[in-house]
Design a protein that fits this description.
Blueprint lengths: L4 H19 L2 E2 H8 L3 H13 L3 E6 L8 E5 L5 E7 L3 E8 L4 E8 L7 H19 L6 E7 L3 E3 L4 E5 L4 E4 L1 H6 L6 E4 L1 H12 L8 E6 L3 E7 L2 E2 L31 H4 L1 H11 L11 H13 L3 H25 L3 E5 H22 L2 H5 L2 E4 L6 H34 L4
Parallel strand pairs: 4-7, 7-11, 12-15, 15-16
Antiparallel strand pairs: 1-3, 2-3, 4-5, 5-6, 8-9, 9-10, 12-13, 13-14
Helix pairs in contact: 1-2, 1-3, 1-13, 2-3, 6-13, 8-9, 8-10, 9-10, 9-11, 10-11
Bound molecules: zinc ion.
């Protein structure tokens, strides 16, 4: 796809704002160094962001040389909402422009609640709740980023395929726009999680990074070459549906032997059931309770829990070794709720398993870590998508205003 000069300008403006959010306060000189843009370009973009009241001037740098003006994000310049739609819950967070969480809301979804209208109702309730909690006016909400599992078309806002609910071509943003008045942006948790790590997590300031999402669904977000890697049709990273065991377990995508069938929450429950069919750790039909019980069991050195985590890590490790061999990343991040709950013991076993399968050279260059992001990375990433979208539309409005202004200035007197 060809990038226009406006696309590049929007991307540069976004990059500068991202640096300011991550490093406030900062100077134009520091921004130029961090973004590798010229000082003149940075000065122009900073001027635009000041016009948009997304950043403010906050005095001068304390140094011996010539005085350098400092800018910082204007946290109260607008609010962003991130929506994490998962298989068993909807989690919504409202952020200020500095991406600090101002309000949170949760909605549980039962196993039977898989119709688009039911999911939309939960999202609308949670969005209404965070706006009310934060006590802000609706006009200050710049946008709502929505993360939904599966393959999505960002441009049309359609959930093309969600294997968990067997959704095909659901016009999710159209349905949401009937009940939510703010601008809406759609993507999936793999990409949202990868962006969250790039901005605030383990990928910040690092090279190529793979963010391995371990939840009910499983996949990999790819932060390659300094940006998000989407693939030609925005479906890169479906690592959960790569084949790990020929003729193996049936996966919900319809194939057999997929990574997800062994390391997704349901796959882990099956690992436990195969090892100890009547284990008290097993809570049938309740993934969260089972993973919680396993985490507690590991903490108490329960031999069954330890064995299940080791067995699961063997599968994760073989799958991650493939990613390490193919992509040669600097960092692999274990993210999402299963990784968070099983924590360090899982990380330890995964590192050992990857070392058994990966080639020595790429392995030596790779660090495997748990996500350091304390809140929900999918919400945070989704909010950044809303920020990106808002910046694009605000930038267009500013550009139009400037052109109109320039035209009126140069118009001949009538
Ligand atoms: Zn599959």
């Amino acid at each position: 796809m060809k990038r226009t000069s406006r696309d590049i300008r929007t991307a540069n403006r976004y990059e500068v704002l991202r640096q300011i959010i991550a490093e406030s306060p900062t100077s134009r000189q520091e921004l130029a160094a961090a973004t590798e843009l010229s000082l003149a370009t940075v000065a122009t973009l900073v001027g635009e962001l000041l016009d948009l009241r997304m950043i403010t001037e906050v005095g001068f740098e304390d140094s011996a040389g010539p005085a350098r003006g400092l800018v910082a994000v204007n946290a109260s310049g607008g609010a962003l909402i991130g929506v994490d739609i998962a298989e068993t819950y909807v989690h919504v967070e409202l952020f200020d422009l500095g991406l600090n969480v101002l309000a949170r809301a949760d909605e549980d979804m039962g196993p039977g609640e898989s119709l688009p209208e039911q999911v939309v109702a939960h999202v609308a309730a949670a969005v209404g709740s965070v706006v009310a909690q934060a006590g802000i006016e609706g006009a200050r909400v710049l946008g709502v980023g929505v993360s939904v599992p599966g393959q999505v078309d960002r441009d049309t806002g359609v959930s093309e395929y969600a294997p968990n609910w067997d959704w095909h071509d659901v016009p999710l943003l159209d349905l949401l726009s009937e009940v939510i008045a703010y601008p809406l942006y759609l993507d999936n948790p793999l990409r949202a999680g990868a962006v969250a790590e790039m901005w605030f997590g383990a990928a910040r300031g690092r090279g190529d990074t793979v963010v391995v999402n371990l939840g009910t669904g499983v996949g990999a977000g790819l932060a390659l070459g300094g940006g998000l890697y989407r693939g030609v049709s925005n479906s890169a990273g479906e690592w959960g549906h790569t084949t790990l065991v020929l003729d193996g377990r049936l996966c919900r995508c319809g194939n057999r032997g997929c990574v997800e069938a062994y390391v997704g929450a349901a796959g882990i429950m099956l690992n436990l059931r195969e090892l100890s069919p009547r284990s008290p750790l097993l809570h049938p039909d309740d993934q969260t309770a089972t993973i919680d019980a396993l985490a507690r069991g590991v903490g108490a050195y329960d031999p069954v829990a330890l064995k299940v985590v080791r067995e699961t890590a063997r599968y994760i490790g073989a799958g991650i070794a493939n990613l390490v061999n193919v992509l040669n990343p600097e960092v692999v991040v274990l993210s999402s709720w299963v990784a968070r709950k099983l924590g360090e013991p899982l990380l330890h076993e995964v590192r050992e398993a990857v070392a058994r399968h990966a080639l020595r050279r790429p392995l030596a260059a790779t660090e495997i870590v748990l996500s350091p992001i304390p809140t929900d990375p999918a919400c945070l990433g989704a909010a950044t998508f809303a920020l990106e979208g808002a910046l694009q539309s605000l930038g267009q409005r500013t550009a139009t205003k400037r052109t109109t202004l320039a035209r009126s200035r140069t118009a001949p007197p009538s």
